[in-house]
Amino acid sequence: METYTARSCELTKYYHNFCALDKVSISIKRGEIYGLVGDNGAGKTTFLKLLSGQIFPTAGELSLFGKHTQKDLQSARSRIGVLIEEAGFYPTLTVEQNLEYYRLQKGIPGKQPLEEALEMTGLSEFRKKSCRELSFGMKQRLGLAVALLGVPEFLLLDEPINGLDPSGILEMRNLLLKLNREKNITILLSSHILSELEQIATIFGFLQRGKLLEEISAEALYKKCADYVEIQVSDAQVYAVLLEQKFGHTHYQILPEGKIHILQADRPTEAYSALAVDAHLAVHSLMRCHQSLEEYYMNLKNGGTKTC
Ligand SMILES: Nc1ncnc2c1ncn2[C@@H]1O[C@H](COP(=O)(O)OP(=O)(O)OP(=O)(O)O)[C@@H](O)[C@H]1O
């Protein structure tokens, strides 16, 4: 079996003269839940559409289940379920009838796939409900059921959590975790809010204006965010030089009023005050804090961890 469900190498997409995706290299391992994070217009949908074959790249390479050629990619796409943009449903038809419509459209034989999709998304008891009676969250679930027809090995979901209320978000998260764990489905999902993916993604890719800023495992991300030390000294610039020269720390932020955030601060807190005192700098305050994932993401977007 292939290690990678999907890989892109320097994948690039231009819409006329506009570069929507710029040499993006992403690797999605089998069994992973990959969270693609980026602001509006970052290129998330473009990336998902390239994977699903709805559009074609301007340059770069793409492989799915280890297949590269156009012909092989096309057949590999039958193993993918896609939810990109809101699926269109006939309001007067029932949940079951809408699913049946998509089953026929996708050319999936037999009734069993429809039953499985209903069961996996918890929609069986609502099968006779007409679509116009469904809540937004239920419609999202139905969209997911369409993507699940034929039990795909890989799910591509564009902002599946967007617009859901807190209980809808929880429901969708649990459903995706269940599909990943019980059916071993690899999932790529996008969001412009990192915290929405926080509890489920095993790896994150951060996109900004078509470029991949960073690809990082959830474990490494949480480690990076774990702790930082905030110190306020009489001369932050001098202290920053000491941090680099004596401790080899390059991950820090210089803030106004002589404050410095030392990220990945792996030494005892006292070591950071001693560093200042030994250089005859006054220490006005010192504390160990926790960085949220959103803060980390904001820093990344603002060009790294060193800011003045
Ligand atoms: N068909 C198109 N023609 C021209 N420009 C396009 C087209 N589709 C997307 N774009 C542009 O490409 C950029 C990336 O769009 P894309 O939809 O991939 O971003 P996104 O990260 O999914 O954003 P959102 O979160 O708003 O959906 C945007 O600036 C968008 O305006």
TrEMBL record:
Do you know which Pfam families this protein is assigned to? ABC_tran
This protein's record includes keyword Thylakoid: no
Q: Where is the ABC transporter domain?
A: 6-234
Gene3D superfamilies cross-referenced by the UniProt entry: P-loop containing nucleotide triphosphate hydrolases (3.40.50.300)
PROSITE patterns (UniProt xref): ABC_TRANSPORTER_1 (PS00211), ABC_TRANSPORTER_2 (PS50893)
Q: Which SMART domains match?
A: AAA (SM00382)
Q: Does the keyword Nucleotide-binding apply?
A: yes
Q: Which UniProt keywords apply?
A: ATP-binding, Nucleotide-binding, Transport
A GO molecular function term, named singly, is: ATP binding
Family, according to the entry, reads as follows: Belongs to the ABC transporter superfamily.
The protein, known as: ABC transporter, ATP-binding protein
Q: Which species is listed as the source?
A: Marvinbryantia formatexigens DSM 14469
